[in-house]
User: What shape does this take?
Amino acid sequence: MKPEFENIPLVKNETKKRFEIEVNGHFAFINYGEREHQIALVHTEAEPELAGTGAAAAVVEKTLQLIKDSGKKLLPFCPYVFAFIKKHPEWKAIVDEKFGGYDQL
Assistant: This one.
């Protein structure tokens, strides 16, 4: 994660069902679904003003850390999150082994 994002807090916006960070009034976020022992990440997006800044990667990394800390298992349905985990295999440890694409990570 780029240093400029390290101190930006991750917010779990339960109303919008997304994890988000706010950067200069603009949002990068991941839509999620949650069960007792799992969190599914469905879609990652950054507002156009944040394109190319690393904000999307930062919100993914912060969200993965939150899931790890929660003890829940991850279902990475979002292609961006899936690709992030492939690039950073240390996060595979939090992916639910029953996830359909687990063997491709």
